[in-house]
Amino acid sequence: MCDRKYAILGTGALGGFYGARLQKAGLDVHFLLKSDYEHVSKSGLVVDSKDGDFIIPQVNAYNDVNKMPQCDVVVIALKTTQNYLLPKLLPPVVKDHGVVLVLQNGLGVEEEVAQIVGNVTVIGGLCFLCSNKVGLGHIRHLDYGKITMGEYTHQYYPSRITARMQQIADDFNSAGIPIELAEDLLLARWQKLVWNIPYNGLSVILNARTDELMADANTRILVEQLMNEVVAGAKSAGRIIPDSFMQTMLNYTLKMKPYRTSMKIDYDERRPLEVEAIFGNPLRKTQAAGVNLPQINCVYHQLKFLDGKNRG
Amino acid sequence: MCDRKYAILGTGALGGFYGARLQKAGLDVHFLLKSDYEHVSKSGLVVDSKDGDFIIPQVNAYNDVNKMPQCDVVVIALKTTQNYLLPKLLPPVVKDHGVVLVLQNGLGVEEEVAQIVGNVTVIGGLCFLCSNKVGLGHIRHLDYGKITMGEYTHQYYPSRITARMQQIADDFNSAGIPIELAEDLLLARWQKLVWNIPYNGLSVILNARTDELMADANTRILVEQLMNEVVAGAKSAGRIIPDSFMQTMLNYTLKMKPYRTSMKIDYDERRPLEVEAIFGNPLRKTQAAGVNLPQINCVYHQLKFLDGKNRG
Q1: Suppose A184 and one of A142, A158, B32, B86 were both cysteines; which one would form an S-S bond, judging by CB atoms 3.0 to 4.6 Å apart?
Q2: Last residue of some domain: B155, B183, B211?
């Protein structure tokens, strides 16, 4: 169908799901695994999905990036807490003039990736996906799946929609993954923080689901105040998020099923929290622009303390 | 020895300790009790103290304020969460031209008391006391005990040291309680908040002792940032707290034994937290002066949520 080779770095709830869907659609996909390597090499990937369950019995599985073929599109599907590994992982697997697609939360990762591998295109992708890894090579896709993609340019200047972006979008679309192409990646990233910062942060600190945070007048106010600080942070980067967007996020959350955030799940599983990508980087960017976000700063330090103690 | 009658409203860890010490020194003390009334009427009060254990076998115990004699000095030793009871409790028990001594945490209570009973002197007292109630009529005094007292004047204008204050100080001194007399009650209250706001708040939210909050770089920074906001709040009320005071509080806490704050103990015992007196009132006073304390505001809303859920 297509000669583009895909590498998936990190075959978990997110990378496993998208990679399996791409392979099912006929694409040539190569998976980097760690703990699940032996199992997946033998038995493949199993995806239980609300869109239909399926199995990929034959998987190109690797436990060493140096054994992988050089790929046209390298998908970073690790948690950002693993990004210290990227200088070792990326160079062997990405083709010259290839694409690195960063499917991660938070701010600033594309910039880091561009510094690691020179002659590539870096695309950021924001995933709206509910999925969990429920066993070795076994993924449960609960809801959603859409990805918003934008191309990284030096200092995040807005870019046009390139042919390369469109090709990748076509591949994902052929796998049944809806793609939205954005001209302003940085705006899209700040918009996602409008949700991620209050709900991920408070869910961990207060041991609460999204519905509890919305039902209590005090946390409801705090959610809005944190959202306002995110909007101020975006503004310091020259990105305007209208009040109506905040209102949309609040209404959307009110209508959601009671939801344990991804950061709360990480916390409960005693995995490292993505505090730096989601809180630390936005705070540092904003501070460099001379703007102070005191409530986000408070939540950041609380999370850092809890994360340390949790893995202690 | 002395003809001043004392009433103790709230015979718990604090009121029971100070009241028992006053009676032991020969003063005429009348105790209002609730759950411990029957036991204390029969068996008196038992105080285990680092200064020497003692028993008060015969106690003037009451379970109804209307049965108490009118007293010269009425000590409010309830938690501030019980202050909605004061309009019923105070008028029957305080003598005309008597004194109400508010031994409570936080800000603004003297003002409320002055509105409830007109023709009295209101004195605020800040207690530096570690004690717990460990059983019916049984108090364990662990450490400290000093009280800083200042007279309340309209709008908290600094006042002079009056003869009345000196008399009460003499009574407490005769009972072995060190008293410091302050000319500026409001300054003393804001100074106490420099400690209470960061440590009480974070200990509950982060489930941490004082030593853990000081040992972790993130909470250490957050403690200092919260202290800085308290200093800004004091300034909005015209009270200057020098940086050296903050440093003294930090050093003092570093040297303390690992300590579970009083608010954390209340939380663990599922008692209502004194959030309004310690956080809400300072925030409202400061906001009325046009000053915003965003990190204290964040901690306030978090505590309100946790308090509600804890007793929920």
Answers
A1: A158
A2: B183
